[in-house]
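Dear support,

I submitted the protein below through the web form. The confirmation email said the job was done, but the results page showed an empty box. After a refresh the structure appeared. I'm attaching both so you can tell me whether what I see now is the final result or a partial one.
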Amino acid sequence: RKIGQSLHMSTSGYVSDEEYSRCLTPREERKQVLNEDRFPVMDQRNSWRRKLLGPIRYVKRKVLPSRSRQPGTLILVRCGQSDWNQNYTFTGWADPDLASEGVRECEHAARLLLEGGYEPDVI
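What the results page shows now:
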């Protein structure tokens, strides 16, 4: 840039990307990131409420035993044979009834799951 040349501000308010990147020292950047992690943007509660509930939540986590939940098992079974499959018809979002062969396939899959020790909660 020449001496006496006027400065033109970009839409960000900084003359150049270099000026923007140097607006915080590395220590200030680190401090800002750590503060952002402590208080998520989605936390819409008042600051006094956060300050009050934070220590309570900390003590609760340390003192009270936590219940460990075992993760469930998700079992996906593809549909059996339908009349539309036999005719090579595209089903899209439709839910055609199963053909007799499709019903037998589903019953067989259910028997295999029960033999394997799985007892489904939701079907």
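Response: this is the final, complete result; the empty box was a page-load delay. The helical segments are 17-21, 26-38, 47-63, 83-86, 100-115.
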